[in-house]
Each structure stands twice: as structure tokens, then as C-alpha cells.
């Protein structure tokens, strides 16, 4: 079994202390690869181009000292855990280092292979556990706002986004558009091929929607086979272009339900408020839905913008 090599960056300007650290790590049963830089500035440059598992950071550095550097990188992502190296009698500095984000500290006068290796491995394990906790928190947060079937945002998130984007559009006088998209004759897919295959079609359509919208757009599953896209900084012309892009992307898809190839189309309604009074979540949804009903009633597989409310839906 091949042993893992841990890459260590020693930030230390005293050659004697660098040699002390190298000697201690060379005696370890763990395999270490050691690089050395002599200042906080050169440490930043090294972190931009290389990957390290751990940083051993001296307090007394030329220019920016180790504690100030530590504080400047605290909380940043993709920064290796840091162990502060201190001189004798620097216990107060060591405590400040822990408060500043260091995982541990080692007094140079007490460094040996056992103590330094243990400190490094413990710091790496704590960092690993914290990263796993953060990943789990992010997954929990994502599940709270994501539709489990399609991976798009869910209706709860859409409601919050509508409130926020309406406030933003009112404050800055920027355009905002809402699109309601419904798959045509989707009930026939479920009736003919079953709901599992229908779910597969919805997932494939969601991928097409996600690939067609911009990063700032909010695409959500509204319910069943209906989707809503909120397009900030987008007026009617841009929203109509987006809707046509979505309609074409869905119609051009090669969808499969089991071993059967099926075709699916979408009808889309678009509403872009013309006045501040129309910048309300309920108004955006109601009028985009009215435009969608118009698209359904007048032939399906088309895009309609809001003009007057329509009654009934095919």
C-alpha cells in the first residue's frame, strides 16, 4: 500500500529553524514533502500556485508578522490549516494565534518528530471534520430550497426570490420578467408510459431549462409539469427571447420513456411589469400564468406575453 505524502509549507525566515522543522519531519513515520518561504507575501504567492496540506507559520516574519497574516486569511476557503511556530515565552502570542484561526501552536524549543507530527495530524483531522460538517450543512440548506425531483429551485425558494427581486427592481428601477412554462399534453406521457417515466421526462426538461437560463435567473418547479423562471434585469424583449430559447430547447430534445422515444413541447407565458405598481409577486405570477393560458388556448407550443386575462385552459 502506497503511503500518502503530506505537503508542508514552512513560512520561516530563519534557516536554523527551518532545518529544525525539516529534521523533525524527516524522522517521522509519516512522509512529508517540505517547502519553505520566508515571508507572508511569498506565502500568498505559493498558495496561489501550489497545493499544501498544512502551513507551519512563524510569528516573527519580516514585514507582515505571522499573526497579522493569519488573521488576513482566516475564514477564507481553500486555505490549508495553520500551526503557529512560536519562540520560548510566547504563550500569549500562541493564544492570539488560536483565536485568529490557527489550529494549534508549537514552541520551537520543544519541537521534535513526535510532537510536530502529532500536531499536524490532529490539525488535519479537525479540518477534515469541519469540512465534512460544512458540506453537510450546505447539503441541508440546498435540500431546503431545491425540488427533489428536478434539482431546480422549489416553490418556497421562488416565493422568497420574487419578494427580493421585486424590492430590488423597485429600488433601482431595473426591469424584471416572469415566465410560466407548462409542458403540453404531459398527462398523456404519464398515462401511456407511467409516472416513473414521466418523472424521467421532467428531469430531462429541467436540465434543458437549467442549460438555457443565465446564472442570475431563478428557475423553479412550480408544481406538476409547470415551471417558473424569474429573469432579473430583463425587459419584455429579452424575456420573449429567453422564452423562445426555452421552447425551442425543449422541442428539440430527444426524450426517452423506457425504450420509447417521445416528443414533448412547452407553452410559455411572459409578463414584464411596465409600472412600479405591477412589481408585486402575485401580479407577476398571475399575469405570467394568464399569458400561459393564452398560449395554451391558441395552439400550444408557443410563447405569449401578457395582454388581457384569459379564462380556461386546455
Structure description:
The protein has 314 residues and is α/β, with parallel strands linked by helices. The chain has helices spanning 15-26, 40-49, 66-73, 91-99, 113-145, 155-172, 186-193, 195-212, 236-251, 281-297; strands at 5-11, 31-37, 54-58, 82-86, 104-107, 176-183, 218-223, 226-232, 255-257, 260-262, 266-271, 303-305. 47% of the residues lie in helices and 20% in strands. Strand 7 (218-223) and strand 8 (226-232) form a beta hairpin.
Describe this protein with a few key phrases:
single chain; 314 residues; alpha/beta; Rossmann fold; Alpha-Beta Plaits; 2 domains; five-stranded parallel β-sheet; five-stranded mixed β-sheet; 12 strands; 47% helix; elongated
Short structural description:
This protein has 314 residues and is an alpha/beta fold.
SSE layout:
Blueprint: E1 5-11, H1 15-26, E2 31-37, H2 40-49, E3 54-58, H3 66-73, E4 82-86, H4 91-99, E5 104-107, H5 113-145, H6 155-172, E6 176-183, H7 186-193, H8 195-212, E7 218-223, E8 226-232, H9 236-251, E9 255-257, E10 260-262, E11 266-271, H10 281-297, E12 303-305
Parallel strand pairs: 1-2, 1-3, 3-4, 4-5, 11-12
Antiparallel strand pairs: 6-8, 6-11, 7-8, 9-10
Helix pairs in contact: 1-5, 7-8, 8-9
* Major β-sheet strand ordering: 2-1-3-4-5
Mean pLDDT value = 90
Q: Give the count of helical stretches.
A: 10
- The CATH architecture of the largest domain is 2-Layer Sandwich
